[in-house]
Amidophosphoribosyltransferase
Amino acid sequence: MSYEVRSLNEECGVFGVWGHPDAARVTYFGLHSLQHRGQEGAGIVANHQGKLSGHRDLGLLAEVFSDERILDRLTGEAAIGHVRYATAGNGSVDNIQPFLFKFFDQQIALAHNGNLTNAKTLRKALETDGAIFHSNSDTEILMHLIRRSSQPVFMDRIKEALNQVKGGFAYLLITEDSMIAALDPNGFRPLSIGQMVNGAYVVASETCALEVIGASFIRDVKPGEVVIINDDGVQIEQYTDDVQPAICSMEFIYFARPDSNIAGVNVHRARKNMGRLLAQEAAIDADMVIGVPNSSLSAASGYAEASGIPYELGLVKNQYIARTFIQPTQELREQGVRMKLSAVRGVVAGKRVILVDDSIVRGTTIRRIVQLLKEAGAKEVHVRIGSPPLKYPCFYGIDIQTREELIAAQYSEAEICEKIEADSLAFLSENGLIEAIGLQFDAPYSGLCMAYFNGDYPTPLYDYEASYLASVE
Amino acid sequence: MSYEVRSLNEECGVFGVWGHPDAARVTYFGLHSLQHRGQEGAGIVANHQGKLSGHRDLGLLAEVFSDERILDRLTGEAAIGHVRYATAGNGSVDNIQPFLFKFFDQQIALAHNGNLTNAKTLRKALETDGAIFHSNSDTEILMHLIRRSSQPVFMDRIKEALNQVKGGFAYLLITEDSMIAALDPNGFRPLSIGQMVNGAYVVASETCALEVIGASFIRDVKPGEVVIINDDGVQIEQYTDDVQPAICSMEFIYFARPDSNIAGVNVHRARKNMGRLLAQEAAIDADMVIGVPNSSLSAASGYAEASGIPYELGLVKNQYIARTFIQPTQELREQGVRMKLSAVRGVVAGKRVILVDDSIVRGTTIRRIVQLLKEAGAKEVHVRIGSPPLKYPCFYGIDIQTREELIAAQYSEAEICEKIEADSLAFLSENGLIEAIGLQFDAPYSGLCMAYFNGDYPTPLYDYEASYLASVE
Amino acid sequence: MSYEVRSLNEECGVFGVWGHPDAARVTYFGLHSLQHRGQEGAGIVANHQGKLSGHRDLGLLAEVFSDERILDRLTGEAAIGHVRYATAGNGSVDNIQPFLFKFFDQQIALAHNGNLTNAKTLRKALETDGAIFHSNSDTEILMHLIRRSSQPVFMDRIKEALNQVKGGFAYLLITEDSMIAALDPNGFRPLSIGQMVNGAYVVASETCALEVIGASFIRDVKPGEVVIINDDGVQIEQYTDDVQPAICSMEFIYFARPDSNIAGVNVHRARKNMGRLLAQEAAIDADMVIGVPNSSLSAASGYAEASGIPYELGLVKNQYIARTFIQPTQELREQGVRMKLSAVRGVVAGKRVILVDDSIVRGTTIRRIVQLLKEAGAKEVHVRIGSPPLKYPCFYGIDIQTREELIAAQYSEAEICEKIEADSLAFLSENGLIEAIGLQFDAPYSGLCMAYFNGDYPTPLYDYEASYLASVE
Amino acid sequence: MSYEVRSLNEECGVFGVWGHPDAARVTYFGLHSLQHRGQEGAGIVANHQGKLSGHRDLGLLAEVFSDERILDRLTGEAAIGHVRYATAGNGSVDNIQPFLFKFFDQQIALAHNGNLTNAKTLRKALETDGAIFHSNSDTEILMHLIRRSSQPVFMDRIKEALNQVKGGFAYLLITEDSMIAALDPNGFRPLSIGQMVNGAYVVASETCALEVIGASFIRDVKPGEVVIINDDGVQIEQYTDDVQPAICSMEFIYFARPDSNIAGVNVHRARKNMGRLLAQEAAIDADMVIGVPNSSLSAASGYAEASGIPYELGLVKNQYIARTFIQPTQELREQGVRMKLSAVRGVVAGKRVILVDDSIVRGTTIRRIVQLLKEAGAKEVHVRIGSPPLKYPCFYGIDIQTREELIAAQYSEAEICEKIEADSLAFLSENGLIEAIGLQFDAPYSGLCMAYFNGDYPTPLYDYEASYLASVE
């Protein structure tokens, strides 16, 4: 029989707090600042004197917890939470995290941000041995490994399990007496520790979540580390020594919030630098620089500053975009209907425009924006991309899964330029990107993962090896 | 017995189309681009071969029409729609427009953007004469006046009614055979006419709604005009000659969308000019200019350009702000919890910041933003406001109703600066504002209404006269 | 232009209380026992120290008030409420009562059970004179008549208005200082007054609503009476002397609840008598008597008792019938799918069955039930109907509107028997019905309206005259 | 750490069909007739060419499938479904069945009606061995046992698992190629096989579900049988020979629908016989017999028939009882408020009433009904119960869990009579019950389970033994 696990890539956000009398509410506000990392669903599990209880559902955080009584019921002095990325069509609440498990001898909840490369193999082996899975998320695997470990001490069970899963992962667990965080040996995903004024410890996917609740930054979780937080404080251990930093460069390019710092680097600064270096690498004469709102505004302002060409607001983003939407008919589409973005005719008409965007995936969006600007009267549109061409899929948690959907994997720069109907097109170089971000690790690419650009994956691909090899032939 | 009509100020948006086979859907997309003008409720009435039917409800447009079948049922070749401004606590669907009236001899639907100054007087007179109102909105009044007019010809009834209502209004009506638009004698609110590729005529509160459906701009509706659109085309008449342009300057300052043009002036351009002139009027040395997202980004970039000081992204706006929200407890509020705006520590720490905002109403928001920046390490925060101090209430449709809530009506600039804990504070001058917008009408203030700044109301205040006089003593 | 007011027949229920600290909650429970009179929508308006506020919506009472906070907000010492009959397809909340009107000099709420015969004429005259209606219910008419009356005293305005409306009506109004009930000159619809233990006065469509809240019965409202209840007690006046009792016999036959008394006659008793007399008029030998649940169980038990034939439970009604339902496909319909009623095979198989039903409208339901019984093995099915054949429409509030839909208006008893595939068919005689109910009024038919059976309408038909005459030709 | 599995008793309903092109819709209608067996939640899993997909949620069936598109998406030629009993406070969708499992080598869905007596022991053993449970329902246990079985052939795995679970159970499973039903060795719960006109096979908890979809009855599933239905037809095997019929007598007394047959006995007939025998055992002179609607009407009519005392409708049940309800205040409760049942004053006033009910659990309901009748004027109320006193808990699926809640376990008949304020009280004898039902099995009590009456449990109690023994001391 044919069997297919649809690999759910999980760019998600996790947040946890230990030692606050209103832990679920703190978690709510922390998660709120991580909402950009996942809009499909959200959940919180609280620990009240060793008893766990939770709530999760499909929808934005504010929808899932729209009834204030839900949070009121989640009393507890510790909590973890999760926001889940929208992957079209798989909207079952069974996949919304944290997963809460109640055993006769233990209660554990588990949240996960990342993607395992050996999930299929592990799952098949576990099922063959009698395990029953209830979601099609990778996340459950760790729990089975922990519960089946023969180690007598619980932390040793966790370490044993962490050494069996491969790929990109940031785990956050809560038990009766501890909160536990762990990062994969490459540290693909960001994960930071902070502390609140009252002494409570906080773990979050991005530092913006620390800011929002007034917590101070302590330090990032490092590759291969497991962090145990309980009433005795924070204890950090290394569950493996086989580590090598390879931080996801897409976090800097478009995924993380501009006010977050990753590995000590401010994301807005990094993006502005991408724009600056892009201006040096791919200068052109024009009347104005405009960015695609909102993610490319930092890079665009960097480009403007470095080039001396004025930065303008040439595109307006409608802030009332609903997630379920009336679709225009074909005829209306042809007549107009730009619900998300509008070109400002009064700004761009008759002008030569440099359009800065953060990246190109399929090329369909940028093509539509170029058209928009031209219809609004722009004389020339020169596209400048703040990152190198995306040519390879990501297996560590970013939702780029096949080479077929990547326009830069199929076509040359000149061909892409023609397809998107731009007057010129340039990408930032790989070295430019590395320099712009400016990590200082003693590791390839200064500690960045550059695999989507050059296919140089920092780990074996396990279950994905065969399909990857087929795709690059 | 005491009787109080709570005057509902109505910054709203209207949109209508005549002559398109999918009129309700066109109206949906037009209204979608006007959503910033009102989020409390939305409605559409369609005309199918002379029969009117409609749908309206509380909520965002996309929520009200989330079930695609609703639009499918609103077949028709003409339609009008309305988005309504959120006025806290009065959320009854009875007030959501368009209002649809079915008489034994006529069907009419009516939508309204504005505020009448003699509503209370007219309503009392009408009720004394047996009229029954079903909403507490001003909008119904016009319909009673029309139906009670003794004029034999329908258009004369409308003109007679338009001459009885006073204040700020943009009306949009649809009958069995026509769509009718009318603007008050001062033209406080914007209203424009456009045409689609297929010849259909469109009326909209802002030109951005023309762009979104691919319609070309024909001309603005002028003060004192009534526009009749039907299968014979467009006919424009003057229902009064006692006109004097006094376009609401707050539309330019913060209310309209930056890609709209009002009286031929692009809103983004006008805002950028406000920033430029502010930089000249109130220069100061600093490390960076930042704007309050999103409405003040144009002015901030103008300030930066004119001053030569770099424009930076120092504040991040969370784009996932729900309308109903879990409120932080007092303790959490003190510890942090900035759900809407965050300061980018990596950008502002140790810097002297010029913070540009469009206006100050109560002063509470700007005070919180200054605090945010200082907590994120800003060394100095110099507040620059792209408009003059707001000192007087608006009676023509902007929701500023009492002097008590206006900080600039109570305190001097120096006092405000101290209250908001800024290092310096400056407002744009009245002349600066008039110059930045650059209207050319042969009228006071070049055709702008400046009443909120200087109390120079372009009309008598009727029902509001007494309370206004009491407030300024 | 063609104009059509779809006459909404209103078998509804009204309830009001004056002088109870929790008036809205009392009204909720009173209405709950009247839910059988209307399931489309419900509403309550409360009077708190002279200020009226209300809530109404589509749905069952328990749905409309499912959020307990709604009732909590409706504080007040007096209240009126309404449940509205489901008329397919016209589900607008605009038609849900009570209607609440706030004038500059007065607040009034209004609820109505009945149907006016001159509504169209009155409405057209009022609209011609400038009146604006907001619903397509008859109910609004009274309010326009009251507000336009030239009488200086409010009660005289009401009496003047009551003398202008014709047909069947039971009105319940509440103002700042009084609750007012009025019944039409024929007393078509039931309306009773009761008193609670604490002295509060209650008005209700049926006496079962008095029982449910523990109120004692005082007396019925009589034809042509208007009842004023306020802090001074109850005052009853006659607004017209042109009265003649003609109580709707369908209330006894199937509409009212069996535990209610109308004009002193218990409804269950009346139905049981109908069964008893039917057994005498139309005896037949059989093995068992079964009734159609639930409305015909009383009549069936009467038939069984009088005939000496055992009463059996041969039909089971599924108590979980949802109002919106998945429809079976054609194929499934043919294979079975009886969601509402099932025949008990173990009871009826091989037996001769007397099937008692209260009335036949279209004949489709009884035909399906006969089939059901035969498929379950019944050897013979003899249909006995506890009322005379329905041959004429009702214009006073029962939803039988055209003769076309009445099978007995089109076919003879023998033809109907054949169409419904019964082995025999008999109806109760008109005299039998009158005797079974046993009213004692000095009026035609002892005070019953028998018009649906014999076309003898107790009032002129006004707006319906023409269409009625056309139908009987 | 303390760990408590709240044992969820599961009086539920299951339905399945194999071989119908619209299997999910057939299942919907089948389940609809089983809604009385469970109102907390419902679900359906369909099999389309070997692929399973499902939908389940909290609420009534019609609510769970209110959007017709859900059923449309559940295409398939086979399906199983489940309705779940409402157990207060544990309303998580995780417990709603069928449970759907997707393994790398197999897809299975599982529904269950019953209660296991060794669930806690099995669950603890499985968890100790690494199993992870996702609900707190007993139902999951069977799936773990199946997947962990070492038998090579799938049907042998199922049989091995069935021999490990103890207590009362009716399982219904669906796999890629078969539908499988199984009954416990005592046959506590009913389960029947039928066939549709097109040849499709059907399995259902009660025969009323066969009637509703037009299927003919084939035979009951017998104790210890496992039924395999696939494209080759029906195959029935015995998974154990250690069987002894002990059909739950409460199914006959009040749980099953009157039109169902269990073990060939019609439920209405059985109830009527209970009434007849009760009349013989506990005769008394009175004016009328009334039953508590709806479950006791059969028994009441039997009592009336046998005694010759007239059967009357003395209690009316409000058919619009919502599941979430506004609660009356204490004061209102005292003044009346009988939302569910009303006494018919016009029937019972001044009369001596025999009140027939099916059973007494806590005694609170019958006490309230006696009061109701007395307040409505009944001179005497003689309570007659159609079953013996309930004295012992049920561990096989009926929600009677502790002796403490059973009034007959604490008090004598005389004491109960006094507590419920009746004029006399009598129960049907055990022999009377056995005779009334009339099973013919060669087993104790002719094949009935009488344990709730006499503590004679037909199986060991396993996990419940200790608490049971404590309770009877």
